[in-house]
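Morning!

This is the sequence you dropped in the shared folder:
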Amino acid sequence: MDRHTLDLSEQGLTTFPGPAREPAGIREVNAYRNRLTTVPDWLWDLRELRVLILADNELTELSPRISRLSHVHTLDLGHNAFTSLPDEIGELPNLTEYLYLSDNRLTSLPDSLFGLSGLRYLGATDNALTELPENIRGLSALRELRLYHNRLRALPDSIGELAALRELHLRGNRISHLPDSIGALSDLRLLDLRDNGLRELPDSLLCLPRLAKLDLRWNRELRVPDWLPELGAGDCVVLR
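The structure's back. Tokens below.
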């Protein structure tokens, strides 16, 4: 085993064991798929940690001490039972690669999270999110945003300020319309809007020069605009 990695994955653990060696120097902790309900205090003192995987456990709370992990670039908290996250999650200056929060019980995300200006991937699918704040614009480096299977009814106008965004996954929400600003996402390649309540589409979608796939399936009340065949001329649009 890499001396910089503590791999505890898939061992049926109900408590987090202490490290078998001096924890200094550990850069990755992988506790994927156990039955953990708590995280020990010593973990927050791993100042050289880069990757923390706590996915697929039974965690309900995350300590504010997570802010001590100033070198973490990848954080996986998916498939747990979190109902909220501490504001301190936005105090991780090097959280740039991957933040995975899917399959929890989140009804909102902490405002501080939207200050992670270097973050490139955010996954918060299969939660109970009802809205996104205007300050989502702070995720200025975001390339992929996955929010499918939530309870979103609309997108904020500021979504158009995510200039680096390449993929936007919104399947299985309750969105009835899109803001015109979505046409400002000049690097967007994939827009998944399946199974929403869409009724109309903004003309600004024609302004997306790199869009390779627009998936509109299972929006039964959608009024198909006259210009959609123009957008679909390159097999971009999926309607059925």
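Headline: The first helix runs from residue 228 to 231.

More detail when I'm at my desk.
O.
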